[in-house]
User: Fold these one by one.
Assistant:
Number 1:
Amino acid sequence: MCSAVTLALEQVKAQGRSKIHRIDLSVGELSGVVPDALMFAFDVVSAGTPAEGANLHLTTVPTLCYCAHCHREFYPMSLIYACPHCHHLSNDIREGKDLELVSLEIS
Amino acid sequence: MCELAGHREILYLHQNVLKKNNQSAEKNRTLFRNLLAINLMSAPGAGKTTLIQQLIKHTHFRSAVVVGDLATDHDAQQIRQTEIPAVQVTTGNLCHLDAENVARAVGELELATLELVIIENVGNLVCPAMYHLGEDLRIVLMSVTEGENKSLKYPTLFKSADAVVISKTDLAAAVDFDREKALAYLSQVVPQTPVFEISARSAKGIDAFHAYLAQALEAKRLLRSLSI
């Protein structure tokens, strides 16, 4: 959370602005980020900064796997990444690992 | 200063929040180019320090250890008893090592003389998954005393691992550890990841793990010699 807010504050400063109204983050299911914990941490970390009171919007990015056996991508139904077409297990993760700062609304 | 001041504007960034850490991790990768760096992760008390001590006793690698803890340098002191250089990183309230504090710590080591750098992460099965340190291998430990289902409970960390170690196998009978069940869960959550079963107390299983690391070091050297 510190990294996300630091990044946002750097941006608002670089733009010569003083207030962040809204922060959009995309959170990969496998990023290790827990949305509730992130929301909670945001209030603490942003207090007294231009990001204080901003609306924090999180979009979850689901895990996307690639099946090396039938060469198809699939969204696993559980933490066991079994291909729904051929039932082989995959550990090739194509999406869902990142935490991305998508956009900021500033003034 | 800015005529838009006061007007709201949307700034599209699409920036990876962990970019800074990933960039530092790449720098560490360069520092580690002639040696093997491993990142050891587990819950607190799974036996990382004891495994490292045993590994050092059984190995001919020229090694050094970076130890991360919230407080104290007990683990580093314990490792120094093996006469191996150990650098303690005290993270304060930070629940994981990041690439920058690892870079600072390895600055205290004579990397050119080393073959193996073991990074003992802060005991935590959540946050270390997000932070790459520039390591070659990510190794997750689970001790038999923690039960069979660790991999189901913390799949993100296990899925980020190159190898899994089941530690304290000498205690398996005392805690009714169901080995088959643990291996079955692992084969579902991390189907292609090698698993090593080790008792650091008796050294049982340490040879196979040692051979795995030796092979990884050999492979890295070979790749490096081919790319020059």
Number 2:
Amino acid sequence: MAVDITFQEKLGNFTLSMNLKSESRRIGILGASGCGKSMTLKSIAGIVKPDTGKIVIDDKVLFDSAHKVNLKPQNRKVGYLFQNYALFPTMTVKSNIAAGLRGTKQEKSKRVCEMLKKFQLEGLEDRLPGELSGGQQQRVALARIMAYEPGVILLDEPFSALDVFLKDRLQQEMIEMLEDYKGTVILVSHSRDEIYRFCEELLIMDAGKVICFGKTKEIFADPQWKEAARLTGCKNITNVNRLDDKTLEVPDWGIRLKLKRKVPEDICCIGFRAHEFIPVWGEPTVNSLPVKLSSMAELQFERKYFLKGCSGDMEEICWFVQREWWDRLDEKGLPDYLEIPEDKILLLKG
Amino acid sequence: MDEIIEIIKELDWSPLYISLKTGVVATIISFFLGIYAARKVLKAGPKMKAVADGILTLPMVLPPTVAGFFLLLLFSRRRPLGIFLFETFDLKIVQTWTGCIIAATVIAFPLMYRNARAAFEQIDVNLIYAARTLGMSETAIFWKVAVPSAGPGIMSGTILTFARAMGEYGATSMLAGNIPGKTGTISQRIAMVIQDGNYLTAGVWVVIVMLIAFGIIFLMNLLSGKNMKHIKRW
């Protein structure tokens, strides 16, 4: 097994308990701020020490509380890419890359040259990090990590401080640069786009607990858990009462939903993605929801409608409408009902 | 004017050498001790830190004469430590140049220590973590990453330490005394000539002190500027 991580660690007001076993080379950890994502990476890297547990990567035991094993970060061969890259500000690009290398001067400088070439940093070797662009800094940080051949690379929200344009380009660049890396990469993020783009397998965390783990695309298609649905970007999540195995009552929306599939007994919520509503003018159809406009925001390619139901005090419903629908909406006015296609309903556990 | 030229011609330059020598040696000692102490205190737990910090800063807060009094108690040849040093190493502290250095070091050390500590506390801790995951040894991390990153703070600490050590008066006069050619520093010479009512000679020394002080600060800023390209002007 490539990665086998199980540990507990007390953190302020909650306990982080991590459980991750995977053969995948690209693993994502998604969670809200402060849920213990970064702490997980820091535990793997040996920067912090968990209370109990075991961390094994590619058959190398990094930490095992039962056998009193706790390798120093220096001996773990873990590449850690920090959000701000943590380049040494007083060292040139060359010395930054050489910082962790061992061996004779010639060996080091040969390795540095290889890295400069591979990461397209030739000509920048004598610059200081402060004189580089964001993209170049990212390349130096990666070159520095790759130079000493780590067994696993940890990416700690590497793109969250970047502007939109740079983010898109650097994400692509990172994917290309890591393409021929044979080891495991673990990406931690609160951005679902980043995770979706990057990771084969996904672990979702909330308040220190693992909520679910599986193939990224499958989790996005069917999150199964309320918190997972929220973190994968589902805007409309509401409590339901299960009336029988094909009918759900939605108290906040004041409607009943008929489903073709069977509803498991442990379902307590449903989720519905903001893009999937179908507008209905005139008579209601099956599973349709009467709505009134609360507010609207127009973006370049989509409009965001925030709606309230007829019953009054309920949470607003989000409906995102792509540009091609706008003409019809302007012509006919706001729909009287929104139809909820039953196959698009996400059945969620609490 | 002629009078001033006459004074400069006849001037006994020994206080200049003594002050410079004392300043340089005390700064070198304080530099390493201060950085070392700063690192140790940074590692310590909160209670230990409060106690250690208090003791290490005390010489700066106390009146120099009080520090001088304690030093005299400690090193006097009628006291255990003084006797021990004299009998074992043939080392005299009171009324010697060594006394000058000890007094200046004790008084100036807190400036180095406090500046170094503040500078270390300002370091982005991720730099240290990154260095560890890259396999750098703790010693290498300290000297190659931490100290250069704390560069500006350490540099200003060094300048202040030197200035303080060179100008030390109170503790020096108590421990080392004012023996011309041996322990007579510039500050002590100025006080002495003023007591004699010789204001013109005092003025000449004041100008010399100011020139040295400015020259050294200018030089250090110039030197450090080369290593601090990464700091942006604003």
Number 3:
Amino acid sequence: MDRPLRLIAGNPLDQLARTIEALLVIASAPLSAQDLADAADDHPERVETALGLVGERYQEGRSGIVLEHVAGGWAFRASRDAAEACARLFERPAQRNLSQASLETLAIVAYLGPCSRPDIARIRGVSADSAVANLVERGLIAEAGRDEAAGAIRYRTTPLFERVFGLESLSQLPRLDDVGADTEQIRERLHAVAEQRTA
Amino acid sequence: MIVRELELDLDAFEGPFDLLLTLVLKDELELREIDVAGIVLAFLERLSEREQLDLEACGEFLVLIAALLELKARGLFPEEAAELAELEPEAAAEELARRLAEYRRMKQAAGWLRERLETEGERYFRLGPAPLAPRLETPLAPQQPETLARVIRLLAVEPPQVSLAHMALRFPPVSQFLDRFRAVLRRRSRFDFDAEVRELSRVEQAVAFLALLDLRRSGEIVIDQAAPFAPIRVARAGEEFADRDERTASWTARSA
């Protein structure tokens, strides 16, 4: 006796989840939920839900590929336990070897940007020219218009910066501790020196 | 301890302090690139190696480093020099404190970024060229179907047949002109080539000229031309252009 085939009712979002996987695997930069919805020709809400399914499938410890929310979008990366193998296959990315001068310049642009080279030099006390050129070359900062008053080129961090540092967005940068106590101490000492000079 | 012999190992300079000062004074080294704090650290390290405090060296060092700092400050903020000089000492101290505090915060931020790089160093991801450009949509303004149809109908009209007649070159045989010129020369001892071929098409004229050259090669005729582009005169071989000068004059006059 022929039995009717039993249909296995899968998750209705499975097809969309597979499409999202495909889109993420060909993308070289993070894709926002809207980008994915446009490409998949589906509703952003359904895409968000499907991303949940994809995220479950590709989580740390479960697969060699990990889905992460980074730089304002979704992207695949290698799992951490494959890092050593990845390192043997590829050189350490240039974005990760940064000098102290570059890191300080990057911090200023990330926290205070968009800002110009004179702004950076004013804070660091040394010329920012080479550090800025270096960061631009590595793709961590980019030009962002000109200073209206002085006409100097201003810089901001790029999505690559957020990706390298594993940030969902710049708002994930930590609040800087208030260095109030130190400032007060410095101020007192400077006032004392000023009084001596005027005396 | 001799301050000038202090060995420095900075990002922008490596060598004795004395050489650094010389290079800076000669404008061969950008003071902007020099980390003055690095020089102070190097000096303090050397100082701590000794049991006794070398006051003379400290004094000399302070004078040199102060001068260096002033030069550097002026170089970094040329436009601010006047502005800051006008500040009251109290306000200047306030401004300096503000800047130092800001720098300290940024150093702290840089420290956080360094830690983050270390903890996130195991994250490998694809770094490719920019993603493919999104497909551009060029929305059309609302169109009247009738207008569109009319325009398309204009485009759909069969284009007029282009005549290719000029491309079908028919070359008459050279022998045809050989016979013709021989016949002319039997009747007359000489003739004017241009006048003879005037009625022919360009292709026929070209073939006629080939025939002329052929006759010349076989020694049947003599060719003469008074000047470039002047009429070509053809005569039976053996017939000299006896009256050359008069004839040339008359032909030249005719061709003019």
